[in-house]
Each structure stands twice: as C-alpha cells, then as structure tokens.
From TrEMBL:
This is Ki1 protein. It comes from the Eukaryota. InterPro entries: PI-PLC_domain, PLC-like_Pdiesterase_TIM-brl, PLipase_C_PInositol-sp_X_dom. SMART domains: PLCXc. PANTHER family: PTHR13593, SI:DKEY-266F7.9. One of its GO terms (molecular function) is phosphoric diester hydrolase activity.
Amino acid sequence: MGGHISKQVEKRKSISTEKKTLVDLKESCGCDFPGADYHPSDRKNWMAGLDLGKLTINKIVWPGTHDSATNKIGIPFISRPFAQCQSLSIYEQLVKGARVLDIRVQEDRRVCHGILKTYSVDVVLDEVEKFLSETKSEIIILEIRTEFGHDDPPDFDKFLIEKLGDHLIHQDDHVFDKTVSEVLPKRVICVWKPRKSAAPKKGGRFRSAGYLKDNWIDTDLPSTKFESNLNHLADQPPVSSRKFFYRVENTVTPQPDNPILCVRPVTDRIHGYARLFIKQCCERNIADRLQIFSTDFIDADFVNACVGITKARIENI
C-alpha cells in the first residue's frame, strides 16, 4: 500500500513538472508564427476562403479530431467520461473546421472506442454527406479503421462505395501536388484500414494504411508527448516530397497508474498548447513537415491556428 501511494505521489510530481515545462516554454518564446493572426471569417468554408488555385493538398495543415465519433459513446456520467474524446457531432466538427476524421468501427458497423460502442457508422457518413451538400470546396480526409480486438465489418468497402462513391478521390500519388481546384468536384480522401480483410489496392477508391501514418505516444505526461511529437515529426520528410499523410496528435491519454482516468481533464494538460507546438515547429525548422494536426475536443482556436499556417504557406510568408 505504501509503495502504491509513493508511486502516486511521484506521478503527480511528474505531471506538475511537465505542465510547468510547457507553461515556461510558452512564456519564453510565445506563440507567434506565420499566419498566427489569421482568423477565417467562416470556418465551415475555410478552404473556400483561401486561394484554391494555389492550395495544394500537401500544403494544407489539416485540423483533425482524435476518436471523432465518440460524442455519444458509453453511458452518460458513467462510462462516457472514460472514452469520450469529442463533445461535438461529426457534422458540428466539420462546421467548426475539422477536415480529418478518425473513425473506429467493429464488425456490426457500429463506431467504438475499445470495448465501448456508440451509433452506427451510417450516422457518421450521413453527417459527412450533409456537410458536403452544404459546401462546395471543402476536402475531407476520412480515416476509417477496424478497432483493435474486433473483426472487420463484412463487405465494408462495398458499403462505403454505396455511401460515398460520388465523392471519393481515387488513390493517386499525384494528388498531393494537385490544388484543391484541380481535385474538385471530388471531395473525400478515404483511408480504409481493415484488420483482416485485404488492404485497398493502388488506383482504387480507397487508400491503405500506408497513406496515413503517425507515431502514437501513449502517455499522460504533456511535455513528454509534446517533445516526442516534435522529435517524430523531425524524422519525417518535408510535405513537398511525401506521398503519404503524417499525423501529429495534440493529445495525452489517461493511464491506469494514475487515479484520473477521465479523458477531458487529462487531455486538457496539452490541449491549450497547439499554437505553441506550431511555433516550435517553426523555431526548429520542421514546419515544412507538419501536415495533419489532430486534437481532442476540437475548438475554434485550434482550427484558426491550422488555417493560419496553411494560408502563410500558400502565400510564402
């Protein structure tokens, strides 16, 4: 018992120290970066507010959501706080400005997060369709994967084609160098990551797992995650020479060795440092590697930061 308490005390000290590290870094270097002052007048149509003839797919810093379809997962006030990473619906996230969705499914096509499940993936796709019908120039990256420990939904690729076929941007390595105006009217880049079924083939309507990569760091320590994200990003080639998407997640994750297991208070340790992260990318000369930037509980300022650095890229600021 004494050993357990001692570990808890040390863990709390580590968390406090790491939180202070980020506070001190923010105070010492600030959060100013090219495009930092830009605020899109309409986040629902923020791509349309940029120069679509200059906005190539690889120059976009894509604001994304982590575990996107968890707004109604589990039982309210009981299991939901342990798995909910977004409070907004898929449609509301897209209106807020999110352009990358992270969807996990199980064999019955229901969205899940670990052992907890929520509504059918049809809800996700219907809300994507609603958003697409209300906008004209917004491109979405839709990542759908079979959750660990589950089987793939039967004939899921055929199901996705039935739901999204007219919107899907076919797999093509040249797409990264194309402008949004060249890609339109197609609107959805779909990455399908089955666990047991055959991976999508080149040239088809879907992209395989190799087209959206990340380095997941499973920690609840904010400075550890922050620095690890920077180090892994530094190892990536610049977006101009990459033929895949690379994601950085501005999140930390509850751990079983800490009494705080609810997602929100844990991920809040890093949530407010998205602008600091972009600033550090610029300071360390790795801003040309930043591409997909995801978060829990997406908000307007996170989107503004991603859109601002995107605007600066296409204007060569």
